Amino acid sequence: MTFTLNFGIVGLGGISETFARDLLTNPLDRGVSDVNHKLVAAGSSSDKKARDFLERVGASSATAYSSYEGVYNDPNVTVVYIGTPHSHHYHNARDALHAGKHVLVEKPAVITADQMRALAQLAQQKHLTLMEAKWTRFFPMLKEIENKVHSGVIGDVKQVHADFGQTFTGVSSDHRIFNLNLGGGSIMDLMPYPLIWVFSVLFYHPANKLCKPSVRGATCIKNQYGVDEMTTALLKFPGIDADAVLSSNINVGSISTLVVRGTHGELVVNDLPLSRPLSYEIRLRDTTNPNPDDQQRKTTTYHHPIPHHGMHWEADEMARLIAAGESQSQRVPWDDSVLSAELLDDIRSQAGIKFPAAIESV
Ligand SMILES: NC(=O)c1ccc[n+]([C@@H]2O[C@H](COP(=O)([O-])OP(=O)(O)OC[C@H]3O[C@@H](n4cnc5c(N)ncnc54)[C@H](OP(=O)(O)O)[C@@H]3O)[C@@H](O)[C@H]2O)c1
């Protein structure tokens, strides 16, 4: 039996459109037959924007609302996908949960860790499913990399360098990325992805035993709008005795995005963006040669094409969780979202980025 999940979407910007298109693809294209999705409602700042959106993505029979409340209160809607700027996620998610809807909220789910704790508590009280839309966690390629690194293919992991740079130079100055009131800057927009990868290969490594990392330093360069244009953070994972360098940049796009260094070699993602790479390499040293400078290296490349954009996998996860009556995902549990929000709080604080109190409130 196929379980069909009825989605409502609020905040009809760029990523909501990508998500909606993926939602409406044929699950069989990705080998999925147990769940399917329907887009039944969309809520926006204007009725016309909602109708145009639904028409564009091929869901013109869905209901268009000129408010988000219309979606929250629509009895046909089972789950609300929130695609507003980060500054609005907490309040939108809270309103949807209060209305009795399950919630899939874009990354970063919140501005502060306290907000994530409050959302998790509310979802638990109301027996509703809540998940941060960390779509990359559901990619088959990420799972394969996780398995290889955890099973010691590159030896003991010692260091990770994860970088996400994306050029926003052609974007108008009133874009949310340049607005502190909307949680702008590279830390909140891009750093969640270096964190996703570092969590996968280090935090969830069995040897780490879920030991929390600490931020040993973070610094940024601000632009003329006062948001961080570029940030670098150093993290220590004491449980596995490994370090991570995380960087994000809204000025320069990066192609080489991830290097995982182990005692036998490296796993390298030489593909962009870090949110959706399609290939990786494993470079192994000939460790039988005692001189590291003379060791031969063997490189193998692995390709993982993604059917459509790849956001459907997180939608499938929501459908399976709701069908099973589960409040949270094992791949993106609430503790995962709280931990990434705590680290982002710390990185911002050490880098000297302060948001207006209004968007940090609980
Ligand atoms: N998963 C990913 O790969 C990915 C990629 C990009 C972005 N994101 C995340 O998704 C969220 C939205 O990003 P986006 O690039 O889609 O943003 P966007 O294109 O600017 O759209 C955001 C939408 O939110 C609504 N909104 C409500 N209050 C707003 C305000 N004060 N200012 C601007 N818009 C407001 C608007 O929709 P209405 O007019 O319809 O209400 C707007 O179209 C962000 O949190 C971002 O981090 C995720």
TrEMBL record:
Task: Describe the family membership recorded for this protein in Swiss-Prot or TrEMBL.
Answer: Belongs to the Gfo/Idh/MocA family.
Query: What is the name of this protein?
Result: D-xylose 1-dehydrogenase (NADP(+), D-xylono-1,5-lactone-forming)
Q: What keyword terms does UniProt attach to this protein?
A: Oxidoreductase
- Annotated stretches, region: Disordered: 284-304
Q: What is its EC number?
A: 1.1.1.179
Q: Which Gene3D superfamilies match?
A: Dihydrodipicolinate Reductase, domain 2, NAD(P)-binding Rossmann-like Domain
Listed GO MF terms: D-xylose 1-dehydrogenase (NADP+) activity; nucleotide binding
Provide the top EC class. oxidoreductase
Residue intervals of the Gfo/Idh/MocA-like oxidoreductase N-terminal domain? 5-132
Oxidoreductase found in the keyword field: yes
Which reactions fall under this protein's catalytic activity?
A: D-xylose + NADP(+) = D-xylono-1,5-lactone + NADPH + H(+)
Q: Which PANTHER family match?
A: OXIDOREDUCTASES (PTHR22604), TRANS-1,2-DIHYDROBENZENE-1,2-DIOL DEHYDROGENASE (PTHR22604:SF105)
